[in-house]
């Protein structure tokens, strides 16, 4: 086996470029040639290939996005399209494919494995951190940093104007960004999909009302995961405003969470996973994800990464739920003293 191919697929994530660098450098040290296909699976099918050489990698690690470009390409679910990809990979003499992406990308990799005999190695690259078998994914830490910084900024204006804000964060259907951003941003409340039971509108409204009464000159921030509230945070802000009589401002953070320079943690993780992926290929591994658990690089059968649930860390959930408790009673007592 002399040639490996790489794609980045699904939503881009800060750190993907650092990962590509590590793959290319490690492959070069082991006399393997690397080609990249642009735009994820679409690039394989349409044969949008380019050579990836060590000298091209000098300035990429610090950049967000992905130098290979990415896409959402639902057509890849069709057998005939996946077979086409297998043909292109064979035509290039590719022996192993590295897929950097999220759960959808790994479903795609498993699908491709039905039609292609080469080794397939997944590297978890998604800001959502919603892949089982790895403690974290490329891009997650940077996205949390970005969300935290945005919350800090909103906090300053919210505090200056004594306003209530609902800040919507990404995560598709997982609450990892929401939980971590809520803790880091000292949010007064958090709504993430994994909470059981989900807070009721009446309870949220009651908390806002009491907080406004106890601390009328203070800000109040609720971090809300996307896709959680029917109608989104605009609708939730409207409903809370109606229930409390307090204007609630909606601030969806959107795609700023996906862009930007990867932080140090993501760069280091990306390079560790990229290097380990090439080593795994040399060791003969196939159809596995290279993940990280408690600081150790692990290999996990690819299908388990998207078939298993990945729960939030309950200790962190408890931390946020504990810290967001406002002790109105002690404030009342102070005031009446
Ligand atoms: N069931 C499937 N069968 C074949 N290919 C799939 C399947 N699901 C997803 N893919 C392919 O993988 C691509 C990426 O998947 P998706 O758009 O869900 O992003 P992702 O990898 O989950 O990343 P992110 O978490 O950043 O959104 C899809 O656009 C499609 O090409
Ligand atoms: O950029 P798109 O295609 O709208 O996708 C947005 C989705 O991608 C992610 O940013 C990464 O999966 C999710 O958090 C979000 O739901």
TrEMBL record:
Compartments (UniProt record): Cytoplasm
EC number: 2.7.1.11
Family: Belongs to the phosphofructokinase type A (PFKA) family.
PANTHER family to which the protein is assigned, alphabetical: ATP-DEPENDENT 6-PHOSPHOFRUCTOKINASE, PHOSPHOFRUCTOKINASE
UniProt keyword annotations, A-Z: ATP-binding, Cytoplasm, Glycolysis, Kinase, Magnesium, Metal-binding, Nucleotide-binding, Transferase
Taxonomic superkingdom: Bacteria
Main localization (coarse): cytoplasm
Any GO CC annotation of this UniProt entry: 6-phosphofructokinase complex
Annotated GO biological process: canonical glycolysis; fructose 1,6-bisphosphate metabolic process; fructose 6-phosphate metabolic process
Pfam families attached to this UniProt entry: PFK (PF00365)
InterPro entries: ATP_PFK (IPR022953), ATP_PFK_prok-type (IPR012003), Phosphofructokinase_dom (IPR000023), PKF_sf (IPR035966)
Cofactor entry: Mg(2+)
NCBIfam families, per the entry: PRK03202.1
Domain Phosphofructokinase, residue spans: 3-281
Single GO MF descriptor: identical protein binding
Name used for this protein in its record: 6-phosphofructokinase
Swiss-Prot/TrEMBL catalytic activity: beta-D-fructose 6-phosphate + ATP = beta-D-fructose 1,6-bisphosphate + ADP + H(+)
Pathway: Carbohydrate degradation; glycolysis; D-glyceraldehyde 3-phosphate and glycerone phosphate from D-glucose: step 3/4
């Amino acid at each position: 086996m002399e040639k490996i191919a790489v794609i980045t697929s699904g939503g881009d994530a800060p750190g993907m470029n650092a990962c590509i660098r590590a793959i290319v450098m490690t492959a070069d040290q082991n006399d393997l040639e690397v080609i990249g296909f642009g735009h994820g699976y679409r690039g394989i099918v349409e044969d949008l290939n380019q050579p990836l050489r060590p000298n091209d990698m000098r300035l990429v690690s610090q950049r967000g996005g992905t130098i290979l470009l990415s896409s959402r390409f639902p057509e890849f679910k069709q057998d005939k399209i996946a077979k086409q990809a297998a043909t292109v990979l064979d035509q290039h003499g590719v022996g192993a494919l590295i897929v950097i992406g999220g759960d959808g990308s790994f479903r795609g990799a498993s699908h491709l494995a039905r039609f292609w005999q080469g080794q397939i190695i997944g590297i978890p690259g998604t800001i959502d951190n919603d892949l089982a078998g790895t403690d974290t994914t490329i891009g997650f830490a940077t996205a949390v940093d970005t969300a935290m910084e945005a919350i800090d900024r909103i906090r300053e204006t919210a505090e200056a104007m004594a306003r209530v804000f609902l800040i919507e964060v990404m995560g598709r259907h997982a609450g990892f960004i929401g939980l971590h951003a809520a803790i880091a941003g000292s949010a007064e409340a958090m709504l993430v999909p994994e909470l059981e039971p989900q807070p009721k509108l009446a309870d949220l409204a009651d908390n806002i009302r009491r907080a406004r009464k106890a601390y009328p000159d203070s800000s109040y921030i609720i971090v809300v995961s996307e896709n959680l509230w029917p109608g989104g945070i605009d609708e939730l802000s409207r409903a809370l405003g109606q229930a409390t009589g307090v204007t609630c401002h909606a601030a969806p953070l959107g795609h700023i969470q996906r862009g930007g320079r990867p932080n140090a943690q993501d760069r280091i993780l990306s390079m560790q996973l990229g290097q380990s992926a090439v080593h795994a290929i040399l060791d003969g591994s196939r159809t596995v994800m290279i993940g990280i658990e408690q600081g150790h690089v692990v290999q996990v059968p690819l299908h388990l990464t998207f078939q298993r649930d990945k729960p939030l860390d309950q200790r962190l959930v408890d931390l946020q739920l504990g810290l967001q408790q406002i002790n109105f009673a002690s404030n009342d007592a102070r005031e009446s003293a």
